[in-house]
Amino acid sequence: MKLIKIHPADNVAVALENLVKGETLTVDGAAVTAIEDVERGHKIALTAIPEGAPIMKYGNPIGLAKCDIAPGAWVHVHNVRTGLSETADYVYDHKTYDLPTVSERTFMGYRRDDGRAAVRNELWIIPTVGCVNNVAAALVRENQHLVTGNIDGLYTFPHPFGCSQMGGDHAQTRKLLAALVRHPNAGGVLVLSLGCENLTQEQFKEELGQWDDRRVKFLTCQQVEDELEAGSALLQELAAYAQGFKREALPASELVVGLKCGGSDGLSGITANPAVGRFSDRLVALGGSTVLTEVPEMFGAENILFSRCQNRQVFDEAVSMVNSFKDYFVSHGQVVYENPSPGNKAGGITTLEDKSCGCVQKGGSAQIVDVLHYGEAVEKKGLSLLSAPGNDLVASTALTAAGAHIILFTTGRGTPFGAPAPTVKISTNTPLYEKKNNWIDFNAGTVAQGESLDDAGDRLLDYVLRVASGEETKAERHGAREISIFKDGVVL
């Protein structure tokens, strides 16, 4: 199969392989002849599309024709424009879908003293201010001997903030870092401060709330003579505590998995994203939790999600989340639809609606049970929406802070980065998997080669449970662990 028509209402199909001018193919029993070359992941017109008419893909409009488009023509940015605007009216039209039946599954994880599950037992150093990033890095280098026995690793997550910030930015930094301290994958955490920063240790402790002083230690560098010696001593105490945790069989219902895409291409919404959606439905059916974010990449496809909000309150919160992000764009003098990157467009994505309709496929068909603000943690079982931008590092950090044990990251172009939580890279196409096998963990390009989405979802569930049980992702093997904090204001 070289062409796929995703929905019966579509007037375009997507090339699963490169098409040559003059090549004739059959789609849904009708012949279409390419009148120009069409690359893999790009769209071809199945019928005549008059100027101003909607381009239909996924059964949804993904843009409007700039001019008359002939059958067999390449459909892309040269002849399609967005149909989005900064305002939209939303109506709650509730829909439900059956979830698959899945046999009970388990993984080998860690049970924390507070009852939470974890998939890693690591030591983390969280700098409260960028001024101590180098101290944190030195502590990681000098204390690798602590990574032994039941301890899976020692990491720090540098960032440039924690001082010279005001208002919402200051609050977001404080909230995000505190959420990382609470993350269950950290068996022990050293909170590292300088001593004169805006984000004082007192503020941070207030944000953190209750904590177990066996698991969380604090060090203010200006208050000790030798911060490396003092930090190493505290890390030894944390390691001694963390060594007490051992892997045991835990139900899959305790997993929280973040859903993210980046470097998307024209196959993202056909292979990898819907395969992740099948996984999400399976984990939710098992009683687990998944989290979907990237709010600007919901624009144009938000109604697909809004219809699955389990009640009016969740719908209202979801609408507020989307409208708040649109207001954020407008307040900065930006349009809401200038999203697809050059790489997205090269891969076949034409408009933000095109990108968004593919992006939301990761959410499967489950009911949306909650809407989380930036820095908030998952509290309800099922599929939640999280307010965060589409930027890969910012969104993946927010997913980690929300409590995601693992992040599934689909990509058609490839990327090497990793979040603090194990980050699974899922390729949309087999050539990427074969070319960048050092980056990609899971190949969903097999869907374009005939594998069913249900089989891909089953295979992905198996793989995620192996990662949850300790199998390292490629990013983990390369030591790729990064964070990025969302900011929107003045730097002093």
Q: Could you please describe the fold and organization of this structure?
A:
The protein has about 500 residues and is an alpha/beta fold. It has three domains: about 5-80, Archaeosine Trna-guanine Transglycosylase, Chain: A, domain 4; about 120-245, 3-Layer(aba) Sandwich (Ribose 5-phosphate Isomerase B, Chain: A); about 250-475. It contains 13 helices and 23 strands. The protein has helices at about 135-140, 165-180, 200-210, 225-240, 270-285, 300-305, 310-330, 340-345, 350-360, 390-400, 430-435, 455-470, 475, and strands spanning about 5, 10-15, 25, 30-35, 45, 55, 60-65, 75, 80, 105-110, 115-120, 120-125, 155, 185-195, 215-220, 250, 255-260, 290, 370, 380-385, 405-410, 425, 440-445. It has a seven-stranded parallel beta sheet, with helices on both faces. A four-stranded antiparallel beta sheet has the order 1-2-5-8, with no helix packed on it. A four-stranded parallel beta sheet has the order 13-12-14-15, with helices on both faces. Helix 1 (about 135-140) packs across helix 4, helix 2 crosses helix 3 (about 200-210) and helix 5 (about 270-285) crosses helix 12. The N and C termini lie far apart (about 55 Å). The mean pLDDT is about 95.
